[in-house]
Write a structure and sequence with these properties.
Strand content: 25-35%
Structural class: mainly beta
Number of helices: 1
Radius of gyration: 17 Å
Distance between the termini: 43 Å
């Protein structure tokens, strides 16, 4: 099994008293052999531990991910004006689907035929992977691509399925929000904008970090480590 850190992309929200989202990052793991070989891309929201007491990143709670692939006429940092480039080509394994994309983007134990399929499936989450994990898809996620698709619809989003539980980032200072499984050897470049909603634990004020993720092919290796300008956004 090989793991690579592929991309650290942009978006610093500056605040001395709140949790700080620094960037999106993508890590790839190669699993399986032959027909079952998959390249698994895990997408993380990363947080800084800088701040007044040096630990705000550990107290960040995740709220939602939204505006997937939304075009931005005035992109900041690594956001792109077209919203997305290329095709995701995600493979789903939560149904008995072989290499097709029959299946769903849902994250949860009820989506799988066995306990190992999440290792090679495509899903979105705001709770991470493990016991009791899951997420809720907003209406924009369903249309026009639907749940059983190799891609995610523009403007789609997902959020925590229980407002009573604070989904904390924790001591690793990173939080997994998506996994994309591809057939091994699929090196087509895919890039998409996405926005994160989060807040400091105990604070009612929502903060927003934004940027883009990239799954690079051989021709996109120059993008590794690319960092753009910093941005800040608030939404009511």
């Amino acid at each position: 099994m090989k793991t690579y850190a592929l991309l650290g992309v942009v978006a610093l929200i500056t605040s001395s008293a709140s949790a700080v989202f620094t960037n999106w990052s993508v890590e790839m793991t190669s699993v399986g052999q032959g027909f079952a070989a998959r390249d698994i891309y895990s997408i993380y929201a990363n947080f800084s531990n800088t701040g007044i007491n040096g630990s705000e990143g550990m107290n960040a709670r995740i709220i939602n991910v939204y505006d997937f692939g939304t075009a931005d006429s005035t992109p900041t940092g690594n956001q792109i004006s077209v919203g997305r480039i290329g095709t995701m080509n995600a493979v789903h394994n939560d149904s008995d689907s072989g290499v097709s994309s029959v299946g769903t983007w849902c994250a949860g134990t009820n989506c799988y035929n066995n306990t190992t399929q999440s290792l090679t499936d495509s899903f979105v989450t705001v709770k991470g992977v493990g016991a009791n994990w899951g997420t809720t898809l907003d209406p924009g996620f369903i249309s026009p691509s639907g749940l059983s698709a190799s891609d995610i619809a523009q403007n789609a989003g997902w959020y925590t399925d229980s407002v009573a539980t604070p989904y904390l980032v924790g001591s690793t200072l990173k939080y997994k929000v998506m996994q994309i499984a591809r057939i091994a050897g699929d090196y087509g470049v895919f890039r998409s904008n996405m926005t994160l909603g989060y807040a400091a634990l105990g604070s009612p004020t929502a903060l927003f970090g934004y940027g883009s993720i990239t799954i690079p092919g051989p021709g996109a290796l120059s993008l590794l480590g690319l960092v753009g300008a910093f941005g800040r956004r608030r939404r009511s």
